[in-house]
């Protein structure tokens, strides 16, 4: 059990002591190599040679942490702390050390003077830990390396955890970013019945690195009106109104925090009572609209209590010359001694006295909560068998339409552990079968004509990929599962978010105490080869290049050729952990090439030879290899192989399909790619290979540059040639059509022997374009093409 409540005056004293202790530990991490308890005057050798870290935001972070701890200790409430200010790492570390979590997770950081010395030394030091909140920071789910994602992470964490409150501190610099600005809308998707709550705490300290912040400089009444317009009930705490009395500030913030949490309790109690009445068939009262959730606006000085307080000069290192400047070093010592460490730590360096009265115990500590180490809470999904949803080979089917029916079953079986996120594209991307079993979450007003909106559901749609990807991160990092689906071209919006998350996974993999979490699965549809109607602005497959640049043990790129293969790779993505899974699949009907059984085996292998599609066995040799990676880029090599079979039957063609793009990478760098021996078996180095690739050709060359026979690899893909045109003309514009592929293949086998056929291919290509330009649609021989030799024949 947590400690019993203590008298208010003692409680405020304890909060102030915790705050001073955390401030002391924060300053010590930034500056000190030695002398952690200031048992003697600070000497130059006690100071780190390179001062890295940020003080300016830390005092307010420590204040909020101390008050949250006091309430947890009093009430046993479950809280998760999300630290938005980018370089608040030393504050988060300090509180985790005070809670004892550092010593539990890092036994070498003992709870004594020597451990404190190591704790200070490791911060922003070679071989140590980063300056920002990172995976190494106990209790963190928000990487501090890039601003703007804290509130989205917080709302994602609150989903489906009805007893959790996420205290999310938003920095006023961070509040200027686009992702954060859009994230204020995310409370529209929070259900007070089945979800937890987010308590945003906007810290206005007035400055960024060297400039004032916008929200800190607008009139208070405008700021209040702004957040009321966003649907919040703002509660303002202004430290400047009570002068230099820290107890008065603590009393103000304590009252504000209690008021906010009481409001959250009231909202949830009313909604849950209403839901119980409705379930019992009784009148349920008002409609399920969005309540006005509380938030706190906390005004504090920049660099509070430290040198250069209230100016941007306290943002990072207020005293940058303390190692060489005696006066600055004296100011540092006076600053740290003003925290009165002798009242906070005993002679061995352990926290003493009243601090323990507001320190939660066990998993209630915010630095030790399982919610911030989601692998401790994660359970495997109850996945329906994909055999119930497979499509017969030989019939056209929408890949995403097929997947949507399976996802509907996933939703039915996993009512509180799986969510689908998308920017208004669930229907557009043909996943709308999920609406047979669930709805979009929507707690704002509704109007006639709205469809699939309800107070609770398993689909969240908001026209901001930033917010959705951040909510998905928060959801999986706290132990659940989900998929983000979006248009391929606009996945670039989250390039840097995915990059930051890849870094999070990389760092987490080195920490044995962070248990594996569900994959961050991103499904890209409405892709480049079927965006002929929307035009050039919607034609960009470059997100694959971004993902492929990351540590390839932590990312996967899947390019399923048909509906059955999409089922196989998606099921695998939802079963595995600790990766970013990017899947690209079309929504329009395309041929289904593989039976479900063959698709599962093919997806597991990553790549393979499709003997049934080529002429290698008939001719007795392979003169050329035709490769496809993607759905449309698989149709075209197959059509090219059929042209060669009919018009140049003496040419031996091998057809290869790649579903797992990174399987062709360098096995000397990563474990995942196939071995050189397997690669050689498939691609036949020394034989020309014409590769139809979904994305930019350079990516295939980057992946395979050390493979045998790389000079024999000739990649066709998107060449930045697009417009509003027909689907086949899009292929022609980028030399990805069947005629271009067959022409390239025959040219590399023996151009002189096939000169007449090469001319016919060129003429056929020109005719296809002319037909499209005169009729506004592709020729029936293209749109109605079917492969004649299916594997079951």
TrEMBL record:
EC numbers, comma separated: 4.1.2.22, 4.1.2.9
Domain Xylulose 5-phosphate/Fructose 6-phosphate phosphoketolase N-terminal stretches: 9-376
PROSITE patterns: PHOSPHOKETOLASE_1 (PS60002), PHOSPHOKETOLASE_2 (PS60003)
GO MF annotation terms: fructose-6-phosphate phosphoketolase activity; magnesium ion binding; phosphoketolase activity
Co-factor(s): thiamine diphosphate
One Pfam family this sequence matches: XFP_C
Span of domain Xylulose 5-phosphate/Fructose 6-phosphate phosphoketolase C-terminal: 587-786
GO BP, sorted A to Z: carbohydrate metabolic process
Keywords, comma-separated and alphabetical: Lyase, Thiamine pyrophosphate
PANTHER family registered for this protein in UniProt: PHOSPHOKETOLASE-RELATED
Family named by the database record: Belongs to the XFP family.
Name recorded for this polypeptide: Putative phosphoketolase
Organism of this sequence: Curtobacterium luteum
């Amino acid at each position: 059990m947590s400690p019993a409540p203590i008298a208010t005056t003692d409680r405020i004293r304890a909060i102030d002591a915790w705050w001073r202790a955390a401030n002391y530990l924060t300053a010590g991490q930034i500056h000190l190599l030695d002398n952690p308890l200031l048992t003697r005057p600070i000497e130059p050798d006690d100071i780190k040679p390179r001062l890295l870290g940020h003080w300016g935001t830390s005092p307010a972070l420590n204040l909020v942490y101390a008050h949250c701890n006091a309430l947890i200790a009093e009430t046993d409430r479950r809280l998760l702390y999300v630290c938005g200010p980018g370089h608040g790492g030393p504050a988060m570390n300090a509180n985790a050390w005070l809670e004892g979590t550092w010593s539990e997770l890092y036994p070498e950081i003992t709870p004594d003077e020597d451990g404190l010395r190591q704790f200070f030394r490791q911060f922003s030091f070679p071989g140590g830990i980063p300056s920002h909140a990172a995976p190494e920071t106990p209790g963190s789910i928000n990487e501090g390396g890039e601003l703007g994602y804290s509130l989205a992470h917080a709302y994602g964490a609150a989903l489906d955890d009805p007893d959790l409150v996420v205290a999310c501190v938003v920095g006023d610099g961070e509040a200027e970013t686009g992702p954060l600005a859009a994230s204020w809308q995310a409370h529209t998707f929070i259900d007070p019945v089945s979800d937890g709550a987010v308590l945003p705490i906007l810290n206005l300290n007035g400055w960024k690195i060297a400039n004032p912040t916008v929200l800190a400089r607008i009139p208070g009444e405008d700021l209040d009106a702004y957040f009321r317009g966003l649907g919040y009930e703002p509660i303002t705490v202004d430290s400047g109104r009570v002068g230099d009395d820290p107890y008065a500030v603590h009393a103000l913030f304590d009252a504000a925090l209690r008021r906010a949490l009481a409001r959250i309790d009231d909202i949830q109690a009313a909604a849950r009572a209403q839901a119980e009445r409705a379930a019992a068939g009784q009148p349920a009262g008002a409609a399920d609209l969005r309540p006005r959730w509380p938030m706190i606006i906390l005004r504090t000085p920049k660099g509070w209590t430290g040198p250069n307080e209230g100016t941007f000069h306290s943002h990072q290192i207020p005293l940058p010359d303390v190692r060489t400047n005696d006066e600055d070093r004296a100011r540092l010592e006076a600053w740290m001694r003003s925290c009165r460490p002798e009242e906070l730590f005993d002679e061995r360096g352990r926290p003493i006295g009243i601090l323990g009265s507001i320190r939660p115990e066990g998993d209630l500590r915010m630095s030790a909560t399982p919610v911030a180490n989601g692998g401790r809470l994660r359970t495997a999904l109850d996945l329906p068998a994909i055999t119930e949803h497979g499509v017969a080979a030989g019939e056209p089917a929408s890949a995403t339409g097929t997947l949507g029916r399976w996802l509907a079953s996933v939703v039915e079986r996993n009512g509180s552990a799986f969510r689908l996120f998308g920017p208004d594209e669930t229907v557009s991307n043909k996943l709308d079968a999920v609406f047979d079993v669930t709805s979009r979450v929507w707690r704002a007003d509704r109007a006639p004509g709205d469809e699939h909106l309800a107070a609770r559901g398993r689909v969240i749609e908001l026209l901001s990929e930033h917010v959705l990807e951040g909510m998905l991160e928060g959801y999986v990092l706290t132990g659940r599962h989900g998929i983000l689906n979006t248009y391929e071209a606009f996945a670039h919006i989250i390039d840097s978010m995915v990059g930051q998350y890849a870094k999070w996974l990389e760092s987490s993999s080195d920490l044995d105490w962070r248990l594996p979490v569900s994959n961050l699965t991103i499904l890209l549809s409405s892709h480049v080869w079927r965006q002929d109607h929307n035009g050039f602005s919607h034609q960009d497959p470059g997100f694959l290049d971004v993902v492929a640049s990351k540590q390839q043990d932590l990312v996967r790129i899947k390019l399923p050729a048909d509906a059955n293969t999409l089922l196989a790779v998606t099921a695998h993505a939802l079963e595995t952990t600790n990766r970013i899974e990017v899947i690209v699949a079309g929504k329009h009907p395309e041929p289904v090439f593989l039976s479900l059984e063959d698709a599962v085996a093919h997806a597991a292998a990553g790549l393979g030879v499709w003997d049934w599609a080529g002429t290698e066995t008939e001719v007795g040799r392979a003169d050329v290899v035709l490769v496809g990676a993607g759905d449309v880029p698989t149709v075209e090599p197959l059509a090219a192989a059929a042209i060669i079979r009919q018009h140049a039957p003496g040419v031996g063609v091998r057809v290869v399909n790649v579903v797992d793009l990174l399987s062709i990478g360098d096995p000397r760098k990563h474990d995942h790619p196939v071995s050189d021996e397997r690669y050689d078996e498939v691609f036949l180095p020394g034989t020309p290979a014409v590769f139809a690739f979904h994305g930019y050709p350079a990516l295939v060359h980057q992946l395979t540059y050390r493979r045998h026979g790389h000079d024999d690899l000739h990649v066709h893909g998107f060449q930045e040639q697009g417009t509003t045109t027909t689907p086949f003309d899009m292929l022609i514009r980028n030399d990805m059509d069947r005629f271009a592929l067959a022409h390239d293949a025959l040219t590399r086998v023996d151009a002189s022997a096939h000169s007449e056929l090469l001319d016919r291919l060129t003429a056929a290509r020109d005719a296809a374009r002319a037909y499209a330009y005169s009729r506004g649609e592709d020729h029936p021989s293209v749109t109605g093409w079917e492969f004649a030799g299916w594997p079951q024949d």
